[in-house]
């Protein structure tokens, strides 16, 4: 009898623990707004993991040691060239990703490092001050090298551009996908030799020509259509188009053309009030290895300053300084043409949404797949999905990643508890 009551009491306690885990999990999934996201910094959002960068550095004896990461392996052997100005200081051949060298004289050295003969060198400033200099001046300071670089240093986490690129699985085998490929070839006239910028401009011009004068609040039916059908519906006058439609249509055609595009939104609901609600795209220009802001709602296709293509956070920062810089330019669609115009003349939409309290959400490429599971198996994958759905960035966001990790933890604890409960029940029955 005592054993029976003990088992019964154990099952009751286990059931209460499971109920608590379930409630916590439901709260984190429904009520806690940051349980599906991870908070990232600028470099984690914009530096491609596959680009060669310094993973770690330190001292090895009297030499500086630098370990690199990224796509740098070349037939299991890597070649590093260390330059100071035009002069080659060291030619280092290694089967690994780490180099060591020392400088011959103290002082500031502006060096650059080429990997496997690449013309794109990694700039590094090194101030070399050996112990003897400090000892001579009666100082016990023992740091020999001071190193600075505009290339991120550290393990990240960094993401590859493909991690962000929105995916439309199986779209190319659908009638809409086949029709899109034909449009890219015949109407948009994408050529195999077109670089990323040319593809962006051609696709944007095609979309904006067909939606000109049809901006506004869309119908509910529009969201149920695939992006190609959305464009056709808008062009036929059945619905107006707004930011979500423009970002979906652009990312659909751009992805089909071979570009990598990610969806970005600005704004977040807090206590029943949104800090904004705008959606746009960033496209990866692989030739420059940068993410560039594309907002067809405002008819701003690409934006640049001093010849550098800008992303959303670049623009947010520049707008906060209220610049009227003649080099701050937009490629803007106007009267069936794309013109280069000072950004402050066409920045009203961005200036409204990009503000001190703005929260930017960057959606990972698998967001659409995981958010809309097609069967029970995919629903199970969604429940145990261990990665964030999207990342957030803000200059004024007082949160960490606790809610995300708590949701993942309660997922697995809940599953483990259910298994233990089931085993206990079966033992009692049998």
Secondary structure layout plus pairing:
Blueprint: H1 2-30, E1 37-39, H2 42-46, E2 53-60, E3 63-69, E4 78-84, E5 87-94, E6 98-101, E7 107-115, E8 122-128, H3 131-136, E9 145-148, H4 161-164, H5 175-186, H6 196-211, H7 227-235, H8 243-256, E10 260-266, E11 269-270, E12 273-274, E13 278-285, E14 290-294, E15 300-305, E16 308-309, H9 312-320, E17 328-334, E18 337-342, H10 348-353, E19 360-363, H11 367-371, H12 376-383, E20 390-393, H13 402-429
Parallel strand pairs: 1-20
Antiparallel strand pairs: 2-3, 3-6, 4-5, 4-7, 7-8, 8-9, 10-13, 10-19, 11-12, 13-14, 15-16, 15-17, 17-18, 19-20
Helix pairs in contact: 1-13, 6-8, 7-8
Describe the protein.
The protein has helices at 2-30, 42-46, 131-136, 161-164, 175-186, 196-211, 227-235, 243-256, 312-320, 348-353, 367-371, 376-383, 402-429, and strands at residues 37-39, 53-60, 63-69, 78-84, 87-94, 98-101, 107-115, 122-128, 145-148, 260-266, 269-270, 273-274, 278-285, 290-294, 300-305, 308-309, 328-334, 337-342, 360-363, 390-393. It is an alpha+beta fold. The chain folds into 2 domains: 50-148, Immunoglobulin-like, CATH 2.60.40; 161-363, C8orf32 fold (Roll). Strands 1-20-19-10-13-14 form a 6-stranded mixed sheet, with helices on both faces. A hairpin with a 6-residue loop joins strand 7 and strand 8 (122-128). Helix 7 (227-235) crosses helix 8. The longest helix has 29 residues, at 2-30.
